[in-house]
Every structure is written in structure tokens, then in C-alpha cells.
Amino acid sequence: MPARGDHDARREDVSEAVWRVLAAHGFSGLTLRAVAAEMGASTGLVTHYFPNKKALVRYAVRLADDRTQARARREPERPGLAALRAALLDVLPLTRDAVTMNRMWVGFWGAALADPALHKGEAERYANWRARLRPHVVEAQRRGELDAAADPDDLVAIAASCTHGLVVQVLFDPENFPPERQISLLDSFLDGLPGGA
């Protein structure tokens, strides 16, 4: 029987192969065979860890979520609107790694819409994202940077929607949405919010 360290090292190899397949082909290209080919191993080795594609996809979502949460984030210049801006910039595909991460998540949406368990998890991820944005909006309202009479949940939903809408445009038309334009469009959006400066 292999030593525990060997098992853990092999699982890490499998995890890295899953990530490389996701980065290159998205969720639609994530199969047991593709992961095995990426490792230069047999499909049997991969099925030792994932008995079927559903188990593989669920693992890949956890892996992607862990990597999303662990990524470096911008330090805002100050609380309020600047902190909201920094949090939204962290989502945009401004770097190669951010493009890969966004391609992977957008590619996952189809699977999440078709599978109730994945759907629930994705809905929770969106709720958590909005919950992380909300304190920035509330602080911006308190500081007079956004309209204090506006519903903060509405402002958060609008900001999240605009940002992810821009992500989709960038992924489909990267030539027309270089990083500088993405930042400029986000800043124009923030300036146009009720009370935005």
C-alpha cells in the first residue's frame, strides 16, 4: 500500500492536472480522460480519486473556489467607494490569470444551471460576493459618496451585474476591451451611480 505522503502527493498531481485542464478547456472540456491525458496517466488512476464526471466537476468547483478566494486582492486607498472600486477591479479580467479564472467560471455557468446542487452552490457564491460588496456601498453612502436614500442592496446588485457583464464582453471580444478600457468603463459606471463622484 502506498505511503500516505505518496497518496497526498499523487492527489496534488491530480489537482494540478484538473486545474490545467480547466484553464485550457473550461468545464466543458473537463473529463476523466482529459485529466488522465494531462497527467500522462491512465484513466483508472483518475477514477481512483473521482468515480465519475460529476464527482470530478464538483471537486473542480471546490478547487476553483479555493483558488479564487486565495488570489491576491487590491488594497483600497480608503473605505467606501474606493474600496468598492478595488473589489470590483479584482473581478475584472485585467491579467492573464484573471482571464483564465473568469473563463473557467463563465464556462461553469451552464453546468450550474443544469445541476441543482451546483446551482445552489453558485447562488451561494453570488450571495457571498454581494455580501462582501455591501459594506463598501454602505460606507460610501455614509461618507456621502453614494446616495444615502438608495437601497444598498440594489446598488450592490447593479455593481455586480455591471462588472460581470463587462467580464463577459471582455471574454468574447478581448481586442476591444483591453485592461485600460475595462478600468475606464468601470470608473464611468461608478461615477454614474446615484450620488457617485
Q: Secondary structure elements and their pairing?
A:
Blueprint: H1 4-25, H2 32-39, H3 43-49, H4 53-70, H5 81-89, H6 96-114, H7 116-142, H8 152-172, H9 179-192
Estimated helix fraction: over 70%
* Proportion of residues in β-strands: under 5%
Total beta strand runs: 0
Low-confidence stretches: none
Major sheet characteristics = none
Classification by helices and strands:
mainly alpha
The N- to C-terminal Cα distance equals: 65 Å
Give the helices and strands as they follow along the chain: HHHHHHHHH
What shape does the CA trace take? elongated
Arithmetic mean of pLDDT = 88
| Whole-angstrom Rg | 20 Å
Continuous helix count: 9
How would you characterize this protein structure?
The chain is mostly helical and 197 residues long. The protein has helices at 4-25, 32-39, 43-49, 53-70, 81-89, 96-114, 116-142, 152-172, 179-192. The longest helix is centred in the middle third of the chain and has 27 residues, at 116-142. The radius of gyration is 20 Å and the shape is elongated. 25% of the residues are buried.
Short description, anyone?
It is built from nine helices and no strands. With 197 residues, it is mostly helical. The chain is elongated.
Considering the chains and any ligands shown, give keywords for the structure.
197 residues; mainly alpha; 9 helices
